[in-house]
Automatic annotation (TrEMBL):
Organism: Thermomonas fusca
Source superkingdom: Bacteria
Recorded topology in the membrane: Multi-pass membrane protein
Name this polypeptide is given: Cytochrome b
GO cellular component, one term: plasma membrane
Pfam families on file: Ni_hydr_CYTB (PF01292)
Transmembrane segments: 43-63, 89-118, 138-158
Length: 184
C-alpha cells in the first residue's frame, strides 16, 4: 500500500466517531442489563445513540460508495483479504441491523422512540409480546457478535500496524507508516 493510499478525511472521521459511539453504545447496553436503577436513563440514552449510529452508518456507506477504500497490499494472503472483506461486510450488516432491531423491539414492546426535542419516531413493528421477546434476544445476541467482530477488527488493525507494517492501519489512522521490520 502506497503512503498516498489513504481513506478520505470524511471516511476517517466517520470511522473514528462511530468507533467511539459503538464502544459507548456497547457499554451502555451492558450497563442497562446490569442495573435496574440506571436502566431508564440508560435506555433513554441508548435509543437515540442507536439511531445516530444508524444515520452515521448510512452516511458512511454513501461515502464509501463515492470514495472506495484503498486497495489492500498486493502481498496480503488471499485468505486474509477474503477475511477482511467478510469482516467488513459483517460489521456493516450489524451496524445496520442492530439499530433497526432495537427500534423494532421498542415498537413491539409498545414503547416509543423519542429523539431530542420530543420528536417521536413511528413504530416499525406491531405491538406483540412474543415478537418483542424474540427481537430482544436477537438484539442482545447480535450485540455480542458485534463486540466480537469489533475485537477481531481491532486485532487485525494492530496486526497491520505492528507486525506487517504495511500501511493498512495508517490508511485509516491518517498517520505515517512505521518503517518495515529491519529497516532501522
Amino acid at each position: 500500500m502506497s503512503p498516498a493510499a489513504r481513506f478520505v478525511p470524511l471516511a476517517r472521521l466517520l470511522h473514528w466517531l462511530m468507533a467511539l459511539l459503538l464502544l459507548a453504545q456497547l457499554l451502555v447496553g451492558v450497563a442497562m442489563m446490569a442495573s435496574l436503577t440506571l436502566r431508564p436513563p440508560l435506555i433513554a440514552l441508548h435509543r437515540p445513540l442507536g439511531l445516530a449510529l444508524l444515520v452515521l452508518v448510512l452516511l458512511r456507506l454513501w461515502v464509501r460508495r463515492c470514495h472506495p477504500p484503498p486497495a489492500l497490499p498486493a502481498d496480503l494472503p488471499r485468505w486474509q483479504a477474503a477475511a477482511a472483506r467478510a469482516s467488513h461486510l459483517l460489521l456493516y450488516a450489524l451496524m445496520l441491523a442492530l439499530p433497526l432491531l432495537g427500534w423494532a423491539l421498542t415498537s413491539a414492546a409498545g414503547n416509543v422512540v423519542l429523539l431530542p426535542g420530543a420528536v417521536q419516531l413511528p413504530a416499525i413493528a406491531p405491538r406483540d409480546p412474543l415478537l418483542y421477546a424474540w427481537l430482544r434476544d436477537a438484539h442482545g445476541l447480535l450485540a455480542w457478535v458485534l463486540l466480537a467482530s469489533v475485537l477481531g477488527h481491532l486485532a487485525a488493525a494492530l496486526h497491520h500496524a505492528w507486525v506487517r507494517r504495511d500501511g493498512v492501519f495508517e490508511a485509516m489512522a491518517g498517520g505515517r507508516p512505521l518503517p518495515p521490520p529491519g529497516a532501522d
